[in-house]
Fold:
Amino acid sequence: MSGAVAVVVEAPGAHRLVEHEPVEPGPGEALVRVHAVGICGSDREVYQGNRPEGYVRYPLTPGHEWSGTVERTGAGVPASLAGRKVVGEGFRNCQVCDRCHAGETTLCTAGYEETGFTRPGAMAPTLTLPARLLHVLPDDADLTAAALLEPAACVAAAALKAGARPGERVAVVGTGTLGMFAVQFLRAASPAELLVVGTRGDREALSRRFGASDFRTRDRPLPDDFDLVI
Structure:
């Protein structure tokens, strides 16, 4: 096989590399040259076949945590978008239902469609999607780091909704990527105490570097009087 290739999961446990042909952007769309793509736990679900029914459509090119540069735009999209560094939202929300109007676009009532699950994702050289889902980055942005903006945004939304206030005692359960993001966001709220609970002692140094004031593995005694737990 020669040329650019994309990952395609044909069915649970079965994948292959296929020749990739960019999809020309239609009205309201943009074609993005993918720079980096992350692997999420939900991507593992897609491959293992344990993602809930209705939330995956095979065959599928996965990849919903990504960054890239706009190459071309379709009709109705400003040509000035070409050449800009971007990341993008995955949910193809309708923008007109009550949930979308309330800003809860991931709960859109028009039905579930998402990049990398029911629509082609970013484990390919290019990705074509509605330009309204793009978020333009500064010209000097680190595109490799920017691929983590999607999971970071998920945790930021949780931290904002939790509404941690200065002086509260806060705990984070979990020391993976999302847990480490949560520690950083919650530290910004100036908690009196920020405990991180994990399964591996080797995550303590990183947790403290990101702002934890205490670290315990789950087999140790844990307090039950915290004001907020994420």
